[in-house]
Amino acid sequence: MAKSEVMVSTTFVDRMKSMLRLDFYRLFHTPLFYIMVSIAAIIPAMMVSMVGDAYGDNVWNVVAADHPIYILKDMGQLGNIKMIYIFGGIMLAIFIGHDYTSGFIKSVFTNHSLKHDYILSKSAIGLFSMLCMLCTYLVGTIFAGILVGKSFEVNIGNLLCCLLSKYVMAIGFTLLYTAISVFFRRKFGLAITGAFFLGTGILIMGAAMILGENSPILDLFLYDQERAS
Q1: Is residue 73 part of a domain?
Q2: Residue 29's pLDDT band (boundaries 50, 70, 90)?
C-alpha cells in the first residue's frame, strides 16, 4: 500500500475531523473571510441610511421586501439580503480555487482526506461563512435602523419564517456553489462568475419576464415570498 494511501486510510470521522480542523484554521487565518463578513454588515447599513427610500420606512424591508423583487426597479434594491449568497459563492470559489492553483490540494489528499471528504468539508466551510455573513447583515441592518430612526414594527412570526427561509436557502446555495467551484477548480474566475450570475437572481428575473411577476410558482419557491412587515 502506498504511503499516501496509508496516511488517509483512517475512519470517515477521523478524516472529517482532520479536514475540518485544517479548513477552519485556514478560514480563520484568511483575511478574505473577515473582509466578506465586514462587508456583509456595512452594505445593509449603507442601504438603510443612504438609500433607504428604496425600501420604505420599515427597516425589515431590507431583509424581506414587502413585495417580490423579481425585476429590480432601482439600484438600491441590490442591497437586499440576497447579496449574501453572492458573497458566499465568491469566497468559496476563491477558497477552493486557491487549493488547486497553489498545489496545496496535493498535501490535502496526501495527509488529510479523500475527495468526497474534501467536498463535504468545503461545503461546511462555505455554509458556516454564509451563515456568519447573514448574521452580520442583520447586525448592520439593526444598527443602522436605530441610528436613522427607521420603524421596527413587524409581525414576529412572519419575520422568523422569512429568516428561516434565508438560512435554508443558504444550504442550497452552498451545495450549488461547492459543485461549481470544484468543477471549475483550476479556472475559479468562471466559478466566481457563476456565483455572481446565480446569486443576483438573473435566472429568476428571466423567468418572471416569461411567467409574469405575480406567478404563483415564483412566489412559492423563490425569493421574497415571506413578508416581514
Answers
A1: yes
A2: very high
